[in-house]
Specification:
By secondary structure, the protein is mostly helical. It has 20 helices and 2 strands. α2 runs antiparallel to α8 (131-159).
Length: 521
């Protein structure tokens, strides 16, 4: 019992191990996400450039770039499972709170990815067949794909800003200026990184047979790296309050590597036909790891206080509940040992809340009913008739149907009703024949709903709840007299207390005379 009560206090691995696994798994996931995003962006941009400039030749090389998106997206999605699971364990409080507050966008990630992948695949297939269809698929597919990192960066940015959670919970999506600026810079930084690594990937792997394409990719790589430096400066200032020396060292190493990459990529550094400087094979991994380390250090630093607070709350709650563990375990054991398919248990669980333990309609839920629960102890009816009520309920009242139980279980409930309340006993025989006045009242008033023979009339069957079939249903004389005198709230059965008591008692006798049953059942 203790391990389940303290479930969120039990970690599968030490926090340092979890941090290491999160760093490695998220790094691999992020690398392929950037390659996937960069490939989709570059494929669309090169396609548009070729269409707008009227550049001759087929779209064969652009098609090859877009087709590499298939393998990259598969790896990006598969490798994304591990960090998502680890962060749920490592920072469960912050993760589930932020994604809950961001749920309207978080839940859109899956359909956005499905639409994006299908449209980008269609773009790759139609790129040489139908220019306009390829254009529509490419723009819509890449647009849907670019929405996904916006959602992720927004959720992660909110996860790291616990002070904003109450405002989001109270007013929904209404970020302040500082949050919106940080979110935008973070999103643009991701897009810039996607262009950097996408361009570098295709510079080294897609231009071997097309060296004439290398200058274009070098220019994109140079421009994207420069944009990363320009965007990175205000991004660092947006988190200045949370920086420490470890984060600053990582940022400095990444910035220095970026500057060296720009120097290596400068237009005068190599002839236009060169594939790419080999120094990039070292500098780009350094930039990537430095960016990831800075991000990890910053996230841990920001989330640590809230995480520690959540752990403290869980520990306090665990201690507060500790004295009740044995009691809860004993109650749970009783529940496990309870047989739920007998009539007594079904009545206690399903019927007693409204009808009460003694069947008088005084259960704990009865006070909230518009139509009062029936007094089961006062009912004398045919067994098949009550079976129909149990099976189909009583429309217009709170009596539900119990079709979830099979016939065998409902028969056991009927047996319980018979044992507890003698429900299927014979109707009480009248002491004398009803007087003419009572018969006249029945024919002129009561028969409008109940019929002259006790069967509900066509009008009576339109009422909700429908009046009972008195040929198969009766009440004890005391209960029938009380209903005739006071009426039945929530139904069209009105009180007839103005009638003389002798007439009301004769009406009771008339209502019970329609049901003919054996003396015992």
């Amino acid at each position: 019992m203790t391990q389940w009560n303290d479930l969120f206090l039990r970690m599968p691995l030490p926090e340092s191990w979890q941090n290491g696994l999160l760093f490695v798994s998220f790094g691999l996931h992020l690398l392929f996400v950037l390659l996937m995003l960069g490939t989709a962006l570059l494929g669309l941009l090169f396609f548009l450039q070729k269409c707008l400039t009227g550049e001759g030749g087929a779209q064969l090389w652009n098609k090859q770039i877009v087709h590499t998106h298939l393998g990259l997206k598969s790896l990006a999605v598969v490798l994304g499972v591990a960090p998502l699971l680890i962060v749920q364990v490592r920072y469960s409080h912050a993760f589930f709170t932020a994604t809950g507050l961001f749920s309207y966008a978080w839940l859109a990630v899956i359909p956005l990815l499905i639409v994006a992948f299908l449209l980008i695949d269609a773009f790759g297939h139609k790129i040489e067949v139908n220019t306009w269809l390829a254009f529509i698929c490419g723009v819509l597919g890449v647009g849907a794909l670019l929405t996904v990192p916006a959602v992720f960066t927004g959720a992660l940015a909110l996860m790291e800003r616990q002070a904003l959670w109450p405002a989001f919970a109270a007013g929904g999506f209404s970020p302040d200026g500082a949050f919106a600026a940080h979110w935008l810079l973070r999103y643009l930084h991701i897009l810039g990184a996607a262009l950097v690594f996408g361009a570098a990937f295709h510079l080294f792997f897609s231009t071997r047979k097309h060296p004439e394409k290398a200058p274009r990719l070098r220019n994109w790589l140079f421009g994207a790296t420069l944009a990363q430096v320009v965007i990175g400066l205000p991004l660092v200032f947006s988190v200045a309050a949370d920086l420490n020396w470890s984060i600053l060292w990582a940022v400095t190493v990444g910035a220095a590597a970026a500057m060296l990459a720009l120097w290596a990529l400068r237009p005068a550094a190599a002839p236009s036909s060169a594939i790419g400087p080999r120094s990039l094979l070292v500098l780009l991994p350094v930039i990537f790891v430095a960016m990831l380390v800075a991000r990890q250090f910053l996230q841990d630093r920001v989330l640590a206080p809230g995480h520690a607070q959540a752990i403290a709350v869980r520990e306090a709650r665990s201690k507060a509940l500790a004295p009740f563990r044995q009691q809860a375990l004993a109650a749970f054991t009783v529940k496990l040992e309870t047989v739920y398919d007998n009539g007594e248990t079904i009545y206690d669980g399903a019927c007693q809340p409204c009808h009460g333990p003694a069947g008088h309609g005084d259960g704990p839920a009865a006070g909230r009913l518009l139509v009062p629960a029936a007094d089961l102890a006062a009912i004398r009816a045919d067994r098949e008739y009550i079976y129909g009520i149990l099976k189909d309920g009583t429309p217009g009242s709170a009596m539900p149907y119990f079709r979830l139980y099979d016939k065998e279980k409902l028969d056991k409930v009927l047996d319980t009703l018979s044992r507890r309340f003698s429900m299927f006993a014979a109707a009480a025989k009248p002491a004398h024949e009803p007087d003419l006045e009572a018969q006249t009242v029945w024919e002129e008033t009561c028969s409008v709903c109940h019929g002259t023979d006790g069967a509900p009339t066509p009008f009576g069957r339109t009422l909700r709840p429908e009046p009972p079939d008195l040929r198969r249903f009766s009440l004890t004389p005391e209960r029938a007299l009380a209903i005739i005198t006071e009426g039945y709230p929530g139904t069209v059965m009105q009180p007839y207390r103005a009638l003389p008591e002798e007439v009301r008692r004769d009406l009771v006798a008339i209502s019970n005379s329609f049901r003919i049953v054996p003396d015992s059942k």
